[in-house]
Automatic annotation (TrEMBL):
It comes from Helicobacter ibis. This is Beta-ketoacyl-[acyl-carrier-protein] synthase III. It is found in: Cytoplasm. The active site is at C117, H258, N288. Gene3D superfamilies: 3.40.47.10. Pathway: Lipid metabolism; fatty acid biosynthesis.
Length: 334
């Protein structure tokens, strides 16, 4: 019988745009304040890409770091998947095709997925399936967003929350289960689709002067409702994945939740009784970067030396759709 193959995270990389936008900068544009944003969200600043940078440019830079750290040539990548809600182009080509071409990955499948802030967990689930079914040996996954292109700079309730960035990982095959992505759990509930959405410019409300004048191309959010369901769902999700793997919080080196709001992160961390220093936080620096937030945060933990080869990570995300998911994995650095 063939030896079982497992999927492992082999490297991480990120790209954070240079331009820092502080809360005080936003207070020049909308009726808000550093005090309100800090108290309600924990965000102090975020990064905005420049006008000539698209989502793929951030994704390509993050991918180059991940490929380099994995010591893998583009020609060894069998598939490229990008999770984004702010693709380079509304319909086609996919951002993954643009990224593949720029990296010299030719003749391999490349496609985008849309799972909003849960995008990176969905990517892990897909990559694990393709590798463990022996369809692929190495997959490049990227969560990348230029959310500054889809936020309404006239809506103070949303424009202060989001930022731009990208995070990438190489997922490869291993025979060593202790190095693997142990488990991934992904879910959705479209009943709450209107909690977090961009209502315009798709087939439901095609691009017309009216949709544009009504600003339907931008992110709309029912913040309060989303907040409550996020805390409950993120907490339950972790309880479930730990239980089904016979693990406890003490077996986890770092809890890496999606970075939407420090109050959500703290509430979930406290409900699960994780010590504060085991809960990863980058939301104060980058805001909510949707599909990029978890890989950017893992990259930050790695670059700060807080995680090393063999560290066990628990990831947990929640976002528009609604979608959510969690993952248990070992961090590996080649
Ligand atoms: O990433 C996917 C998942 N996303 C999330 O999970 C986000 C979940 N939601 C949240 O993080 C929070 O609900 C927000 C940060 C979006 C909002 O915080 P909140 O404590 O729920 O505030 P709120 O929406 O209840 O608004 C409270 C007040 C309102 O004024 P009134 O009606 O009490 O007079 C808002 O108009 O704060 C006002 N407000 C603001 N004031 C200053 C809303 N946005 C702002 C602002 N600056 N930027």
């Amino acid at each position: 019988m063939d030896k079982p193959i497992y999927a492992a995270l082999k490297s991480i990389g990120a790209c954070i745009p240079d331009r820092i936008v502080t809360n005080d900068d936003l207070a020049q544009i909308v009726d808000t304040s550093d005090e309100w944003i800090t108290k309600r969200t924990g965000i102090k600043e975020r990064r905005f890409a420049s006008s000539n940078q698209a989502t793929s440019d951030l994704a390509i830079n993050a991918a180059k770091v991940a490929l380099n750290r994995a010591n893998i040539k583009p020609s060894d990548i069998d598939m490229v998947i990008v999770a984004t809600i702010s693709p380079d182009f509304l319909c086609m080509p996919s951002t993954a095709c643009v990224v593949s071409s720029a990296l010299g990955i030719v003749g391999k499948p490349a496609f985008d997925i849309s799972a909003a802030c849960s995008g990176f967990i969905y990517l892990l689930s897909l990559a694990k399936s393709f590798i463990e079914s022996k369809t692929c040996k190495n997959i490049l996954i990227i969560g990348a967003e230029k959310l500054s292109s889809i936020i309404d700079m006239e809506d103070r309730s949303t424009c202060v929350l989001f930022g731009d960035g990208a995070g990438a990982a190489v997922i490869g095959a291993t025979c060593d289960i202790s190095k693997s992505i142990l488990d991934v759990n992904i879910s959705s509930n479209g009943e709450y689709q209107d909690f977090l959405m961009t209502p315009g410019c798709g087939s439901r409300n095609p691009i017309t002067n009216d949709t544009i004048n009504d600003r339907l191309q931008f992110i709309k959010m029912k913040g309060n409702e989303t907040f409550k369901i996020a805390v409950k769902t993120l907490t339950n999700d972790v309880v479930e994945i730990l239980k089904r793997n016979n693990l406890s919080k003490d077996d986890i080196d770092f809890f890496v939740p999606h970075q939407a709001n420090l109050r959500i992160i703290s509430a979930v961390g406290e409900a699960l009784q994780f010590p504060d220093d085991k809960v990863a936080k980058t939301v104060h620096k980058y805001g909510n970067t949707s599909a990029a937030s978890i890989p950017i945060t893992i990259n930050e933990l790695f670059e700060e030396g807080k995680i090393k080869d063999g560290s066990r990570l628990l990831l947990d995300a929640f976002g528009g759709g609604l979608t959510w998911g969690s993952a248990l994995l070992s961090f590996n650095s080649v």
